[in-house]
Amino acid sequence: MYCVRNVTDDLLWVGGDDRRLVMFEGVYSVPDGVSYNSYLLLDEKTVLFDTVDHAVEKVFLENVEHGLGGRSLDYLVIHHMEPDHSATMKAILMIYPDVTVVCNKKIQGMINQFFGENVVKNYHLVGEGDVLDTGKHKLTFLMAPMVHWPEVMVSYDSADKILFSADAFGTFGALNGALFADEVDFFGDYLGESRRYYTNIVGKYGTQVQALLKKAATVEIDMICPLHGFVWRRNIGDYIEKYQQWSRYEPEVTGVMIAYASVYGNTENAANILACKLRDKGIETKMFDVSVTASSEIVAAAFEYSHLVFASTTYNAGIFISMDELLRDIASHNLQNRTVAFIENGSWAATSGKLMCEIIGGLKNMNILESTVSIKSSLKESQLSDIDALADAIAATIPMPLDSE
Ligand code: FEO
């Protein structure tokens, strides 16, 4: 049975929610599920914007059939070829063989890669600024390479001022019936998952996201329809501002994220003592055991916080496994503009501090504090001054609010 909602009078959401998926892209846990959005425009011509993942194929095909109400499908716009949006394209092509696929040249190449040549009967290739007239609506296509694959484009409907934004402005989490962001407490309940989605999926491509935001700023936008998560029709500027901040690698919180890897609790103990001393100074802290918390959560927090402390035991003459993976994950997401400090531990040859610094120090505009605390097995009373010195060094880089009188 179909499950659709009206976005506007002549635009339907025809996607689906997946709450059974354990790991999105095989990497990111999605405890609250994920939505695969597709939209159907019923103009003089009918237009389907993208398809969906195999997981929701059945309801999607019923949605499209119901939405069309017996009309033929004239256009299938493909913004992005990643299979969470294109996997069911072949099914659409089999049911509506005369449909014209609207895409750019790179997308055409990827259609051939995924499905083989000749799967599409009719193509309408578009480039930057090209317009497709569907009757009342005029769709302008804008290229958005690396947001989040090289072929990605977005489209803008000048009639209703709607941006079809592909992966941009998406979020993890099923919709659960609420299609619009203003139907939930988005900034209270969903911003964390939205940040985790952004930072892990497109965090590496801040420059390209900035380029897309510049293009988007040249048109008036009343609505954003992304491929995951909620449709935006209110407070759009607040969400765009979050994208500005994330894509410029600007921290949202002035405070310290402490991530530690500890085998027997001694490195954790040092991290806890540092957190207490920072709190004594009125500095906000957030802590993660990297062996317990998934990397995607900590990557998101690293984007959120201004200061990062990494504490790791030395393991096989290197960085502890889960910390090594985390640091490389952060580095591969191109994090920039943070103040960073390290705590190392080693029962006979502590090397983790130097090695952690080699990974993070190579990132752009990182202020690496020199007060690395080096522990031999466990923190000693005599070393509390080292933790104090580290807390002081961190505090010295955080402007404190003036005392109110
Ligand atoms: Fe939602 Fe890049 O796919």
Describe the protein in words.
The protein is of the alpha/beta class and 405 residues long. The chain contains twelve helices and 23 strands. The protein has helices at 57-68, 83-86, 89-95, 105-115, 186-201, 206-216, 236-247, 266-280, 295-304, 321-332, 352-360, 384-395, and strands at residues 5-8, 11-13, 16-18, 23-24, 28-29, 34-36, 39-42, 46-49, 75-77, 100-103, 122-125, 131-133, 138-143, 153-157, 162-166, 223-226, 253-261, 284-289, 305-315, 318-319, 339-345, 367-368, 373-375. A seven-stranded mixed sheet has the order 1-2-7-8-9-10-11. Strands 17, 18, 19, 20, 21, 22 and 23 form a seven-stranded mixed sheet that branches. A five-stranded mixed sheet has the order 12-13-14-15-16. Strand 7 and strand 8 (46-49) form a beta hairpin. Helix 5 (186-201) packs across helix 9 and helix 6 (206-216) runs antiparallel to helix 7 (236-247). The termini are far apart. The model has no long low-confidence stretch (mean pLDDT 97). It binds MU-OXO-diiron. MU-OXO-diiron binds at residues 80, 82, 84-85, 148-149, 167, 227-228.
Average pLDDT figure: 97
Class by SSE composition:
alpha/beta
What compounds sit in this structure? Answer: MU-OXO-diiron
Radius of gyration: 24 Å
Please estimate the helix content: 25-40%
Task: Point out poorly predicted stretches.
Answer: none
Characteristic key phrases:
about 400 residues; alpha/beta; 12 helices; elongated; binds MU-OXO-diiron
